[in-house]
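Final report, closing paragraph on structural work. Over the funding period we assembled a curated collection of sequence-structure pairs, and we close with a single example.
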Amino acid sequence: MKRVTSGIALSILLLAIGCNKKKEEKEEAAIYPVTSPIVKDTVINKEYVAQIQSVKNIEVRAQEKGFLEKIYVDEGQYVHAGQTLFRIMPQVYHAELLKAKAEAQQATIELQNASTLANNNIVSKNERAMAKAKLDAANAEVKLAQIHLSFTDIKAPFSGIINRLPLKLGSLINEGDLLTSLSDNTSIYTYFNVSEPEYLSYQTHASDRGSQLVNLIMANGEIFPEKGEIQTIEGEFNNETGNIAFRAKFLNPNKLLRNGETGKVQMTMPVHNALIIPQKSTYEIQDQKYVFVIDKNGVAKSRNIKVLYELPDLYIVGSGISAGDKILLEGVQKVKDDQKLKVKFQDPLKVIKSLKLKAE
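Its predicted structure, as stored:
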């Protein structure tokens, strides 16, 4: 019985060794597909973090000192241009206006008397001129008092939405105190920073852009229905970041966007002589991308690459490989560095076309 059991065990062992040997022979005989990067002009959709600001957004501040007598609006309310927002207690300014008017009336009477006396050669013409100057000064004081009184009624300079109201009724207001801020959200600006290389590509290949239109991806991931237009670029680069600010304007007919929001501007950028490889030909170690370059002897050599841009199923490579290199297309997780392989070259264009999505 023991001899029979030993014989069965030996047979199983020999069978397992034979299977492993066949498996190793099969792996050794495997033919790995390789390809080369392709070089072509393409475009990418690049996303930039953007700050959203109303085209019109101002602070509403007091121009006179006094007690806050009336608040005619509420936070978040839409107001029209010229609508009264606040009133600062006006009694003092009413009194100053009445005083100025009384002094102007007195100066008017003095001028009339001086004119009569001057016409009768009782006083000199200089007396009449001095009376005229006194009247002009009094009229100026009236206008100044009227201006001060008008400042007690604070009105909206344009239509928009009222923001936070930091002060309450009865508060003592000093000149320059913040009462609220006002935002006109009919149109909005988005500000976003672009790197120097991307800025140069954008400016030097203007004819390839097609248009100045950009998309806005809102904070919830949805695309804002209106397209924006790039209007201006700042005059200087930021020395610390190496970026320059772009500004795009979007119409906001439904007032969906508000001042202070964030989002992402999606801009089409031309890339000339882009070195393109399939994503599946790469592998990653500690956030670094690698490919296997196959030398003339069929030996796989690991090569670190720098990915500039990511496209669907594709990478645009900045450095690490060149257009003439042959790279391993499939099996990157099985192959080891310095392993000799049997390979079969595949046309790069056919490889790209076989992917679900490809470069434009």
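The CA atoms of residues 185 and 258 lie 6 Å apart. Confidence is low (pLDDT under 50) at residues 1-6. We thank the funder for supporting this effort.
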